[in-house]
Amino acid sequence: MGLKFSLEGYNSFESNENKIERIQTDELRGIALKERERPIRVLIAKPGLDGHDRGAKALTLALRDKGMEVIYTGIRQTPESIVQVAIQEDVDVVGLSSLSGAHDYHFPRVAELLAEAGITDILIIGGGVIPEGDTAFLKGKGIKKIFGPGARTEDIANFIRKNVKRGGDQK
Amino acid sequence: MSQHIRELVKGMLNGNQSSLAQLISLVENNEWSAEEILDKDRVALRKIWRFGITGPPGAGKSTLAAGLVREIRSKGLSVGIIAVDPSSAVTGGAVLGDRIRMEQHFLDREVFIRSVATRGSYGGLSKSIPNIIRLLEASGKDIIMIETAGVGQSEVAIKEIVDTVIVVLTPEGGDSIQFMKAGLIEIAHIVVVNKSDRVGAENFASEIMGVLSMGRKTEWQVPVVNTQAIYGTGMEQLYQELEKHRNFLGLG
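Output (C-alpha coordinates, whole complex):
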Protein backbone atom coordinates (compact mmCIF):
# COMPACT_ATOMS: atom_id res chain seq x y z
CA MET A 1 0.00 0.00 0.00
CA GLY A 2 2.00 2.89 -1.35
CA LEU A 3 5.54 3.92 -0.59
CA LYS A 4 6.70 3.81 3.01
CA PHE A 5 8.65 6.81 4.08
CA SER A 6 11.00 6.41 6.95
CA LEU A 7 12.81 9.07 8.86
CA GLU A 8 15.65 6.58 9.37
CA GLY A 9 17.04 7.12 5.90
CA TYR A 10 17.37 10.84 6.20
CA ASN A 11 20.89 12.07 5.71
CA SER A 12 22.58 15.39 6.09
CA PHE A 13 22.42 17.14 2.73
CA GLU A 14 25.86 18.62 3.11
CA SER A 15 28.58 16.55 1.42
CA ASN A 16 31.55 15.51 3.52
CA GLU A 17 33.94 17.50 1.32
CA ASN A 18 31.92 20.64 1.89
CA LYS A 19 31.72 20.01 5.57
CA ILE A 20 35.47 19.50 5.94
CA GLU A 21 36.25 22.56 3.86
CA ARG A 22 33.86 24.72 5.81
CA ILE A 23 35.12 23.58 9.15
CA GLN A 24 38.75 23.97 8.14
CA THR A 25 38.19 27.54 7.07
CA ASP A 26 36.47 28.38 10.30
CA GLU A 27 38.73 30.42 12.50
CA LEU A 28 37.31 28.72 15.57
CA ARG A 29 37.77 25.24 14.20
CA GLY A 30 37.46 23.26 17.38
CA ILE A 31 34.35 25.10 18.43
CA ALA A 32 32.80 24.80 14.99
CA LEU A 33 33.11 21.03 15.11
CA LYS A 34 31.41 20.85 18.48
CA GLU A 35 28.72 23.24 17.38
CA ARG A 36 27.95 21.19 14.31
CA GLU A 37 26.78 18.34 16.50
CA ARG A 38 24.82 20.63 18.73
CA PRO A 39 24.00 24.05 17.31
CA ILE A 40 23.96 26.85 19.87
CA ARG A 41 20.34 27.83 20.47
CA VAL A 42 19.68 31.53 20.90
CA LEU A 43 16.56 33.45 21.86
CA ILE A 44 16.45 37.02 20.59
CA ALA A 45 13.80 38.88 22.54
CA LYS A 46 12.37 42.36 22.69
CA PRO A 47 10.95 43.26 26.08
CA GLY A 48 8.76 46.28 26.61
CA LEU A 49 6.82 48.76 24.54
CA ASP A 50 9.33 49.20 21.79
CA GLY A 51 8.56 48.54 18.15
CA HIS A 52 12.05 49.01 16.76
CA ASP A 53 13.26 45.57 15.84
CA ARG A 54 15.59 46.11 12.91
CA GLY A 55 18.60 45.41 15.11
CA ALA A 56 17.01 42.31 16.63
CA LYS A 57 16.17 40.99 13.16
CA ALA A 58 19.63 41.78 11.79
CA LEU A 59 21.22 39.89 14.66
CA THR A 60 18.80 36.98 14.25
CA LEU A 61 19.91 36.62 10.62
CA ALA A 62 23.60 37.14 11.42
CA LEU A 63 23.58 34.41 14.07
CA ARG A 64 21.72 32.09 11.72
CA ASP A 65 24.56 32.65 9.27
CA LYS A 66 27.02 31.73 12.01
CA GLY A 67 25.37 28.32 12.29
CA MET A 68 23.18 28.99 15.31
CA GLU A 69 19.50 28.16 15.75
CA VAL A 70 17.78 31.42 16.51
CA ILE A 71 14.29 31.97 17.86
CA TYR A 72 12.87 35.46 17.71
CA THR A 73 9.99 36.38 20.01
CA GLY A 74 8.74 39.42 18.13
CA ILE A 75 8.19 42.84 19.67
CA ARG A 76 6.44 43.91 22.88
CA GLN A 77 7.15 40.91 25.09
CA THR A 78 7.15 40.87 28.87
CA PRO A 79 10.07 39.47 30.90
CA GLU A 80 7.65 36.72 32.01
CA SER A 81 6.85 35.64 28.44
CA ILE A 82 10.51 35.79 27.40
CA VAL A 83 11.53 33.54 30.28
CA GLN A 84 8.74 31.10 29.52
CA VAL A 85 9.93 30.86 25.90
CA ALA A 86 13.58 30.49 26.97
CA ILE A 87 12.59 27.61 29.25
CA GLN A 88 10.48 25.74 26.70
CA GLU A 89 13.03 26.16 23.93
CA ASP A 90 15.92 25.25 26.27
CA VAL A 91 18.10 27.94 24.73
CA ASP A 92 21.75 28.46 25.59
CA VAL A 93 21.64 32.22 25.13
CA VAL A 94 19.07 34.98 25.63
CA GLY A 95 19.76 38.21 23.75
CA LEU A 96 17.63 41.14 24.92
CA SER A 97 17.15 44.18 22.71
CA SER A 98 15.70 47.46 23.89
CA LEU A 99 15.59 50.92 22.40
CA SER A 100 12.93 52.32 24.68
CA GLY A 101 15.01 53.19 27.73
CA ALA A 102 13.37 50.60 29.98
CA HIS A 103 16.35 48.23 29.94
CA ASP A 104 17.21 48.87 33.60
CA TYR A 105 13.94 47.24 34.57
CA HIS A 106 13.39 44.63 31.86
CA PHE A 107 16.87 43.11 31.52
CA PRO A 108 17.45 42.40 35.24
CA ARG A 109 13.88 41.11 35.55
CA VAL A 110 14.59 38.45 32.90
CA ALA A 111 17.73 37.36 34.78
CA GLU A 112 15.79 37.32 38.03
CA LEU A 113 12.93 35.20 36.66
CA LEU A 114 15.35 32.72 35.10
CA ALA A 115 17.13 32.39 38.44
CA GLU A 116 13.78 31.92 40.18
CA ALA A 117 13.08 29.06 37.78
CA GLY A 118 16.36 27.51 38.84
CA ILE A 119 18.15 28.28 35.58
CA THR A 120 21.55 29.84 36.07
CA ASP A 121 23.46 28.53 33.07
CA ILE A 122 21.87 30.60 30.30
CA LEU A 123 24.13 33.32 28.92
CA ILE A 124 22.26 36.64 28.92
CA ILE A 125 23.43 39.50 26.71
CA GLY A 126 21.83 42.83 25.90
CA GLY A 127 21.78 45.31 23.07
CA GLY A 128 20.10 48.40 21.71
CA VAL A 129 20.40 51.95 22.89
CA ILE A 130 21.90 51.55 26.36
CA PRO A 131 23.73 54.47 27.97
CA GLU A 132 27.28 53.56 28.96
CA GLY A 133 26.54 54.52 32.54
CA ASP A 134 24.01 51.69 32.80
CA THR A 135 26.25 48.84 31.68
CA ALA A 136 27.96 48.31 35.03
CA PHE A 137 24.55 48.10 36.75
CA LEU A 138 23.29 45.61 34.16
CA LYS A 139 26.42 43.48 34.43
CA GLY A 140 25.90 43.33 38.17
CA LYS A 141 22.42 41.99 37.49
CA GLY A 142 23.68 39.14 35.34
CA ILE A 143 23.65 40.64 31.85
CA LYS A 144 27.08 39.46 30.77
CA LYS A 145 27.69 41.97 27.99
CA ILE A 146 25.99 44.95 26.36
CA PHE A 147 26.40 45.49 22.63
CA GLY A 148 25.54 49.01 21.57
CA PRO A 149 24.92 50.56 18.16
CA GLY A 150 27.77 49.74 15.76
CA ALA A 151 28.64 46.43 17.44
CA ARG A 152 29.90 43.93 14.87
CA THR A 153 27.81 40.78 14.52
CA GLU A 154 31.09 38.86 14.20
CA ASP A 155 32.07 40.03 17.68
CA ILE A 156 28.67 39.14 19.11
CA ALA A 157 28.85 35.63 17.63
CA ASN A 158 32.39 35.12 18.95
CA PHE A 159 31.39 36.39 22.37
CA ILE A 160 28.54 33.89 22.44
CA ARG A 161 30.77 30.99 21.35
CA LYS A 162 33.36 31.76 23.97
CA ASN A 163 30.96 32.38 26.85
CA VAL A 164 28.17 29.92 26.31
CA LYS A 165 28.01 27.77 29.43
CA ARG A 166 25.89 24.86 28.51
CA GLY A 167 26.87 21.39 27.38
CA GLY A 168 24.83 18.25 26.86
CA ASP A 169 24.59 15.41 29.33
CA GLN A 170 27.23 12.81 28.48
CA LYS A 171 26.55 9.10 28.27
CA MET B 1 21.62 6.32 33.05
CA SER B 2 22.87 9.30 34.96
CA GLN B 3 21.29 10.68 38.06
CA HIS B 4 20.85 13.95 36.20
CA ILE B 5 18.49 12.39 33.67
CA ARG B 6 16.57 10.59 36.42
CA GLU B 7 15.97 13.94 38.04
CA LEU B 8 14.87 15.50 34.78
CA VAL B 9 12.37 12.69 34.21
CA LYS B 10 11.03 13.12 37.71
CA GLY B 11 10.75 16.86 37.08
CA MET B 12 8.95 16.31 33.79
CA LEU B 13 6.44 13.98 35.42
CA ASN B 14 5.81 16.64 38.06
CA GLY B 15 5.03 19.17 35.34
CA ASN B 16 8.37 21.01 35.34
CA GLN B 17 8.68 22.60 31.89
CA SER B 18 12.41 23.12 32.11
CA SER B 19 12.95 19.40 32.76
CA LEU B 20 10.88 18.46 29.74
CA ALA B 21 12.69 21.04 27.61
CA GLN B 22 16.10 19.74 28.65
CA LEU B 23 15.09 16.16 27.91
CA ILE B 24 13.94 17.24 24.45
CA SER B 25 17.38 18.76 23.87
CA LEU B 26 19.00 15.45 24.78
CA VAL B 27 17.01 13.54 22.16
CA GLU B 28 17.35 16.36 19.64
CA ASN B 29 21.10 16.27 20.00
CA ASN B 30 21.11 12.51 19.55
CA GLU B 31 22.60 11.92 22.94
CA TRP B 32 19.80 9.70 24.14
CA SER B 33 16.66 8.14 22.70
CA ALA B 34 13.30 8.66 24.37
CA GLU B 35 13.17 4.92 25.19
CA GLU B 36 16.48 5.11 27.01
CA ILE B 37 15.35 8.19 28.90
CA LEU B 38 11.95 6.88 29.84
CA ASP B 39 13.46 3.52 30.68
CA LYS B 40 10.36 1.65 29.47
CA ASP B 41 9.47 -0.01 32.78
CA ARG B 42 9.44 3.09 34.86
CA VAL B 43 7.47 5.50 32.70
CA ALA B 44 4.42 4.09 30.96
CA LEU B 45 4.39 5.03 27.28
CA ARG B 46 1.04 6.45 26.32
CA LYS B 47 -0.13 6.96 22.78
CA ILE B 48 -2.18 10.09 22.31
CA TRP B 49 -3.78 11.64 19.27
CA ARG B 50 -1.44 13.69 17.11
CA PHE B 51 -2.27 15.88 14.20
CA GLY B 52 -0.04 17.62 11.71
CA ILE B 53 -0.26 20.85 9.78
CA THR B 54 1.61 20.96 6.50
CA GLY B 55 1.64 23.04 3.34
CA PRO B 56 3.76 25.46 1.36
CA PRO B 57 5.74 28.28 3.00
CA GLY B 58 3.65 31.29 3.90
CA ALA B 59 0.32 29.47 3.57
CA GLY B 60 -0.51 30.31 7.17
CA LYS B 61 0.39 27.10 9.01
CA SER B 62 1.63 28.83 12.16
CA THR B 63 -1.28 31.25 12.31
CA LEU B 64 -3.64 28.33 11.85
CA ALA B 65 -1.79 26.46 14.60
CA ALA B 66 -2.31 29.43 16.92
CA GLY B 67 -6.03 29.41 16.13
CA LEU B 68 -6.27 25.70 16.82
CA VAL B 69 -4.46 26.12 20.12
CA ARG B 70 -7.19 28.59 21.05
CA GLU B 71 -9.85 25.98 20.22
CA ILE B 72 -8.02 23.26 22.13
CA ARG B 73 -7.61 25.49 25.19
CA SER B 74 -11.27 26.49 25.09
CA LYS B 75 -12.04 22.78 25.63
CA GLY B 76 -9.73 22.79 28.64
CA LEU B 77 -7.18 20.47 27.01
CA SER B 78 -3.41 20.80 27.06
CA VAL B 79 -1.26 20.65 23.94
CA GLY B 80 2.34 19.99 23.00
CA ILE B 81 3.47 21.63 19.78
CA ILE B 82 6.49 20.80 17.66
CA ALA B 83 7.07 23.60 15.14
CA VAL B 84 9.64 22.83 12.46
CA ASP B 85 11.60 25.28 10.36
CA PRO B 86 14.46 24.63 7.94
CA SER B 87 18.15 24.46 8.83
CA SER B 88 20.49 26.23 6.46
CA ALA B 89 22.16 23.89 3.98
CA VAL B 90 25.06 26.34 3.94
CA THR B 91 25.80 27.06 7.60
CA GLY B 92 23.59 24.67 9.59
CA GLY B 93 21.96 27.67 11.29
CA ALA B 94 18.23 28.33 11.38
CA VAL B 95 15.66 30.98 12.14
CA LEU B 96 12.84 29.35 14.06
CA GLY B 97 9.96 31.71 13.46
CA ASP B 98 6.76 29.71 13.92
CA ARG B 99 6.38 30.50 17.58
CA ILE B 100 6.04 34.23 16.95
CA ARG B 101 2.49 33.61 15.60
CA MET B 102 1.54 31.86 18.83
CA GLU B 103 2.62 34.65 21.18
CA GLN B 104 -0.75 34.90 22.89
CA HIS B 105 -0.10 31.45 24.32
CA PHE B 106 3.42 32.11 25.64
CA LEU B 107 2.30 32.39 29.23
CA ASP B 108 -0.14 29.50 29.15
CA ARG B 109 1.47 26.62 31.02
CA GLU B 110 -0.83 24.12 29.32
CA VAL B 111 0.72 24.99 25.96
CA PHE B 112 4.24 23.69 25.42
CA ILE B 113 5.81 24.91 22.18
CA ARG B 114 9.12 23.60 20.95
CA SER B 115 10.76 25.00 17.81
CA VAL B 116 12.82 22.42 15.96
CA ALA B 117 15.19 22.87 13.02
CA THR B 118 15.27 20.23 10.29
CA ARG B 119 19.03 19.63 10.84
CA GLY B 120 19.45 17.95 7.48
CA SER B 121 16.21 15.97 7.32
CA TYR B 122 13.82 16.21 4.41
CA GLY B 123 10.05 16.23 4.36
CA GLY B 124 9.68 19.35 6.48
CA LEU B 125 10.55 17.31 9.58
CA SER B 126 13.54 16.48 11.73
CA LYS B 127 14.65 12.96 12.57
CA SER B 128 14.38 13.70 16.29
CA ILE B 129 10.60 14.20 16.09
CA PRO B 130 9.51 10.64 16.97
CA ASN B 131 11.59 10.92 20.13
CA ILE B 132 10.24 14.36 21.00
CA ILE B 133 6.69 13.05 20.54
CA ARG B 134 7.35 10.26 23.03
CA LEU B 135 8.57 12.74 25.61
CA LEU B 136 5.55 15.01 25.10
CA GLU B 137 3.28 11.99 25.46
CA ALA B 138 5.01 10.94 28.65
CA SER B 139 4.76 14.47 30.02
CA GLY B 140 0.98 14.12 30.05
CA LYS B 141 -0.14 16.42 27.26
CA ASP B 142 -3.66 15.75 25.93
CA ILE B 143 -2.95 16.47 22.26
CA ILE B 144 0.17 16.75 20.11
CA MET B 145 0.36 19.12 17.17
CA ILE B 146 3.19 19.09 14.64
CA GLU B 147 3.70 21.91 12.21
CA THR B 148 6.08 21.03 9.39
CA ALA B 149 8.46 23.40 7.71
CA GLY B 150 7.03 24.74 4.45
CA VAL B 151 6.77 21.87 1.95
CA GLY B 152 6.28 21.46 -1.79
CA GLN B 153 4.40 18.84 -3.75
CA SER B 154 6.07 15.63 -2.72
CA GLU B 155 7.12 16.03 0.90
CA VAL B 156 4.71 13.71 2.63
CA ALA B 157 6.75 12.22 5.50
CA ILE B 158 4.36 13.83 8.01
CA LYS B 159 1.80 11.12 7.24
CA GLU B 160 4.00 8.53 8.98
CA ILE B 161 4.24 10.64 12.12
CA VAL B 162 0.70 11.84 12.85
CA ASP B 163 -2.80 10.38 12.90
CA THR B 164 -4.51 13.29 11.17
CA VAL B 165 -2.99 15.49 8.47
CA ILE B 166 -4.19 19.00 7.66
CA VAL B 167 -2.90 20.32 4.33
CA VAL B 168 -3.05 24.11 4.17
CA LEU B 169 -3.23 25.83 0.79
CA THR B 170 -3.99 29.35 -0.37
CA PRO B 171 -6.19 30.39 -3.31
CA GLU B 172 -3.09 30.86 -5.50
CA GLY B 173 -2.36 27.13 -5.19
CA GLY B 174 -3.21 26.23 -8.79
CA ASP B 175 -6.00 24.62 -10.80
CA SER B 176 -7.55 21.14 -10.78
CA ILE B 177 -4.59 19.61 -12.64
CA GLN B 178 -2.39 20.42 -9.67
CA PHE B 179 -4.63 18.38 -7.39
CA MET B 180 -4.80 15.44 -9.78
CA LYS B 181 -1.06 15.04 -9.34
CA ALA B 182 0.11 12.62 -6.70
CA GLY B 183 1.72 14.00 -3.56
CA LEU B 184 0.74 16.37 -0.86
CA ILE B 185 -3.00 16.52 -1.49
CA GLU B 186 -3.27 12.70 -1.28
CA ILE B 187 -2.14 12.58 2.33
CA ALA B 188 -4.67 15.17 3.52
CA HIS B 189 -7.41 14.13 5.92
CA ILE B 190 -8.55 17.73 5.93
CA VAL B 191 -7.77 20.38 3.31
CA VAL B 192 -7.74 23.99 4.44
CA VAL B 193 -8.04 26.89 2.02
CA ASN B 194 -6.58 29.68 4.09
CA LYS B 195 -6.69 33.38 3.19
CA SER B 196 -10.12 32.55 1.78
CA ASP B 197 -11.00 36.23 1.49
CA ARG B 198 -8.69 36.43 -1.50
CA VAL B 199 -9.92 36.59 -5.06
CA GLY B 200 -10.64 33.18 -6.55
CA ALA B 201 -10.89 31.35 -3.24
CA GLU B 202 -14.33 29.92 -3.94
CA ASN B 203 -13.35 28.47 -7.32
CA PHE B 204 -10.17 27.13 -5.83
CA ALA B 205 -12.02 25.31 -3.06
CA SER B 206 -14.54 23.81 -5.47
CA GLU B 207 -11.76 22.62 -7.82
CA ILE B 208 -10.17 20.78 -4.93
CA MET B 209 -13.50 19.28 -3.89
CA GLY B 210 -14.10 18.24 -7.48
CA VAL B 211 -10.83 16.38 -7.73
CA LEU B 212 -11.25 14.80 -4.30
CA SER B 213 -14.69 13.48 -5.29
CA MET B 214 -13.31 11.89 -8.47
CA GLY B 215 -10.33 10.17 -6.87
CA ARG B 216 -9.74 6.96 -5.02
CA LYS B 217 -12.69 6.20 -2.76
CA THR B 218 -11.91 6.01 0.91
CA GLU B 219 -14.10 5.57 3.93
CA TRP B 220 -13.10 9.00 5.21
CA GLN B 221 -14.48 11.86 3.12
CA VAL B 222 -11.87 14.62 3.02
CA PRO B 223 -13.52 17.92 3.91
CA VAL B 224 -12.37 21.27 2.50
CA VAL B 225 -12.50 24.04 5.09
CA ASN B 226 -12.22 27.74 4.26
CA THR B 227 -10.37 29.79 6.85
CA GLN B 228 -8.96 33.23 7.43
CA ALA B 229 -6.66 32.18 10.22
CA ILE B 230 -5.45 35.65 11.00
CA TYR B 231 -9.00 36.72 11.93
CA GLY B 232 -9.90 33.37 13.49
CA THR B 233 -12.53 32.74 10.81
CA GLY B 234 -13.34 29.08 10.22
CA MET B 235 -11.25 27.83 13.12
CA GLU B 236 -14.19 26.37 15.02
CA GLN B 237 -15.29 24.41 11.98
CA LEU B 238 -11.74 23.23 11.35
CA TYR B 239 -11.47 21.98 14.90
CA GLN B 240 -14.80 20.15 14.53
CA GLU B 241 -13.48 18.40 11.42
CA LEU B 242 -10.34 17.45 13.34
CA GLU B 243 -12.43 15.91 16.09
CA LYS B 244 -14.56 14.08 13.54
CA HIS B 245 -11.44 12.49 12.11
CA ARG B 246 -10.17 11.69 15.56
CA ASN B 247 -13.43 9.90 16.34
CA PHE B 248 -13.33 8.21 12.93
CA LEU B 249 -9.96 6.75 13.91
CA GLY B 250 -11.34 5.68 17.28
CA LEU B 251 -8.84 7.91 19.10
CA GLY B 252 -11.48 10.12 20.70
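DSSP finds eight helices and eight strands in chain B.
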